[in-house]
Design brief:
Blueprint lengths: L1 E3 L11 E4 L2 E4 L4 H14 L4 E2 L7 H6 L2 H6 L3 H7 L25 H7 L12 H20 L4 E4 L21 H11 L5 E5 L6 H7 L5 E8 L24 E6 L5 H18 L3 E6 L19 H9 L5 E5 L5 H16 L1
This protein binds N-[3-({4-[(3-aminopropyl)amino]butyl}amino)propyl]acetamide (SP5) and zinc ion.
Cofactor: Zn(2+)
GO molecular function, one term: hydrolase activity
InterPro entries: HDACs, His_deacetylse_dom, His_deacetylse_dom_sf, Ureohydrolase_dom_sf
Length: 342
């Protein structure tokens, strides 16, 4: 299959994040995407092509326009205050505060448009964010044009970004925009299957009241793990979306035997929905050696994920999400893809 990849992700670099009481170098490293790209070449998965420029029309259908318009202005607002380093929020409009009044000052705006301190912005961030969006839509267009599958090697990732906020290293929800673009270009039903270790809270929120995009998440139980405030099994969709959101929370220590039961059930539900196309939010932070995660999948398990997805027999767009064991991220992510190709 073809891989779509942009070197413009490299401008999103050296961003800091808040971890365990300290501001530290972020886990979401430039080298992540470089290792995956190198492994695509090493195994001869197929050609690596650059993205085409895409406008933000489909993005505006899943994100709030005020949020999308804010993103490219962050760095200049930050430096206008004489600051450098990493733009990060430190205050958020939680219960009991006004979430309906937009502040003017950059610190208030950053808090208003985020849910954590995991989304640092540096000078090259917006260009990387836009390139990641373009990567997803270019790969979506390949599947739309009849390819069995395509790999969007997105960086930064997207599945924690909601309609109006960033979080968890995610700014634009690449998988959600791709699903919307596929709907806008003729697909009647789209399924998003999110296999990242963390719950894809942004994707769930975006499609929660819609029946035309099924969202299925396999993830660490939010009682124990980030993002903590969404991803429980009783969240099943609302209104026209009722029954089209499915969550499979799993406990710390989950291994392939347990995780693959959820995958089998998820795939059966997906097949019942009978979508025209499947979008896989492909995180490999379920890996046993991931530095921020607590599942136990082994390198040999990742091709089995691809094999199971291939058995659905549906056009499939893979969109890169998380995975922080940098040395193994290429082997594990590309393992899913080679498993899919059989
Ligand atoms: C796309 C994606 O996978 N985003 C993940 C965001 C996770 N943010 C919370 C990170 C918590 C890090 N805890 C570190 C523990 C180190 N031992
Ligand atoms: Zn993750």
């Amino acid at each position: 299959m073809k891989t779509v990849f942009s070197p413009r992700h490299r401008g999103h670099a050296d961003q800091l994040e808040l971890v365990a009481g300290a501001i530290v170098p972020g886990f979401e490293l430039v080298s992540r995407a470089e290792y995956v790209s190198a492994q695509v070449q090493a195994v001869g998965l197929g050609p690596i092509i650059p993205p085409d420029e895409h406008d933000l029309a489909s993005a505006h259908r899943v994100h709030r326009s005020d949020y999308l318009n804010f993103l490219p202005t962050i760095w200049s607002r930050w430096t206008a205050e004489g600051r450098n380093g990493t733009a990060l929020p430190f205050t958020w409009p939680t219960r009991g505060l006004r979430g309906d009044v937009l502040p003017e000052f950059i610190d208030g705006l950053l808090g208003y448009y985020s849910f954590d301190a995991g989304c640092g912005i540096v000078e090259g961030s917006w260009d990387a964010i836009k390139s990641s969006h373009d990567v997803a839509l270019t790969a979506a267009a390949l599947v739309h044009a009849g390819e069995r599958a395509a790999f969007a090697l997105c960086r930064p990732p997207g599945h924690h970004a909601g309609a109006g906020f960033m979080g968890g290293y995610c700014y634009i929800n690449n998988a959600a925009v791709a699903a919307q673009w596929l709907r806008d270009n003729g697909a009647k039903r789209v399924s998003i299957l999110d296999v990242d270790y963390h719950h894809g809270n942004g994707t769930q929120e975006i499609f929660y009241a819609r029946g035309d995009v099924q969202v299925i998440n396999l993830h660490a139980d939010p009682m124990q793990e980030y993002p903590y405030f969404l991803g429980h099994a009783d969240e099943r969709g609302l209104g026209e979306g009722e029954g089209y959101n499915l969550n499979y929370p799993m406990r710390f220590g989950t291994d392939w035997a347990r995780w693959s039961q959820s995958l089998d059930d998820a795939c059966a539900q997906l097949a019942d929905y009978a979508p025209d196309v499947v979008v896989i939010s492909l995180g490999v932070d379920t890996f046993e050696k991931d530095p921020i995660s607590k599942f136990k999948l082994k390198t040999e398990d990742f091709p089995k994920i691809g094999e199971r997805i291939a058995r659905l027999g549906l056009p499939t767009l893979f969109v890169m999400e998380g995975g922080y064991a940098v040395a193994e991220i290429g082997t594990n992510a590309v393992g899913v893809l080679t498993g899919f190709e059989g």
